[in-house]
Amino acid sequence: MTFFKTALLATSAFAAFTGVALAADPILPPPAAMPVYEAPLPAGNAWEGAYLGIYGGAGFVDDEIIADDAETFYGLGVTAGFNFALTDSVIAGVEVQAGYYDWNDDFEDVNGFESYALGRLGLAVTDAVLVYGVAGVGYVENVDGVYAFGGGVEVALTESLSLKGEVLRVHGWDDGFGIAGEDPFRETRATVGLNFRF
């Protein structure tokens, strides 16, 4: 009988001790939340930001100014600009171009400096292709002030480097080459360039 009482008391004591031990266990914190995946920026925003570039090309002046055929020229220059996204794929921007042009033969005396301040508005048709239009004003040496309009296509080669082709139509505000009585200055120029975005 004593054995059973002893066993019963031992069992009760073990149960009471176990309950106290369980009650004293610390409350563990909940597991850490999994990181939330963030989608990348829309493709069009890859064109945002500042850029610098170089360009080269050729063009011709309308034959209304020249007695013979249209006079051709070539030139090299640099560009600087800034793009910003209006929507996921609509890109606006401003650009300045400055370069040197060289006429062949007849107009060697008007070789010189040219510059343009242009506004740009484009559409990112794919992740790597931007189609855009431009318009603005400029200066061509030996010509009164000019205005320009046109368009182009820019293709991303890497994350920061792009290749562009552009055609500009340039008209003089006044008489051609500053000569009274001449028709207004008009030229068409086509250029190819590289832009570096940063």
Topology of this structure?
Layout: H1 2-23, E1 49-61, E2 71-85, E3 90-103, E4 112-124, E5 129-140, E6 146-156, E7 161-175, E8 184-197
Antiparallel strand pairs: 1-2, 1-8, 2-3, 3-4, 4-5, 5-6, 6-7, 7-8
Describe the structure concisely for a colleague.
The chain is mainly beta and 198 residues long. The chain is 11% helix and 54% strand.
CATH architecture: Beta Barrel
- In total, the number of strands is 8
Q: For this structure, what is the CATH class?
A: Mainly Beta
Helix tally equals 1
Poorly predicted parts: 20-24, 39-44, 176-181
Please give the radius of gyration in angstroms: 36 Å
The tally of structural domains comes to: 1
Mean pLDDT: 78
Structural class: mainly beta
> Oligomeric form of this entry?
single chain
Strand content: over 45%
Please bin the fraction of helical residues.
Answer: 10-25%
For the biggest sheet, the summary is: 8 strands, antiparallel, barrel
Give the N-terminus to C-terminus distance in angstroms: 93 Å
Strand/helix succession:
HEEEEEEEE
CATH topology heading: Porin
- What shape does the CA trace take? elongated
